[in-house]
Design a protein that fits this description.
This protein is mainly beta. It has four helices and 13 strands. InterPro entries: MoCF_Sase_C, MOSC_domain, Pyrv_Knase-like_insert_dom_sf. One of its GO terms (molecular function) is molybdenum ion binding.
Amino acid sequence: MAAKVIAVAKDSTHRFSKHPVPAITLLAGLGVEGDAHAGVTVKHRSRVAKDPTVPNLRQVHLMQAELFDELADAGFAVAPAAMGENVTTRGIDLLALSTGTRLRLGGAAIVEVTGLRNPCRQIDAFQPGLMQAVLGRDAQGGLVRKAGVMAVVLQGGPVAAGDVVSVEWQPSRFHPLAPV
């Protein structure tokens, strides 16, 4: 089964959840057209407060729908866009990708994975206990953040539910994802 986009979302205001829409347009070097987090420099309020001149490595937030299945088994009801992602996928293990991996979304758009979303306290305000549910431990006891990956837009284009997601390029040496 090919990996697919199952939903897309955006919001022009800084909120925890985004609004599902039929399609989004990715803009090279900026992010999602019409989204509050689009821009060359950081747009997340906590990062802007520290240094508004830092490059925006969080232009697009991608999350795998398999996390929603896992959360449902734990008693949480989470739908696409509810945790603030722009692109919800199914069939690709986003968390296993290397930093620098390029993903083609649909026929034109290409994003480069920059790192992991670091879940914040807003998750528990959305649903109590959800923060702990999106964190796990690996075999060595290390923290695993499951709340998706962040990316920058290398090549713009439209993205909609049903579009194929494919790995366009991976670094020859694996670089583990870290929070950005």
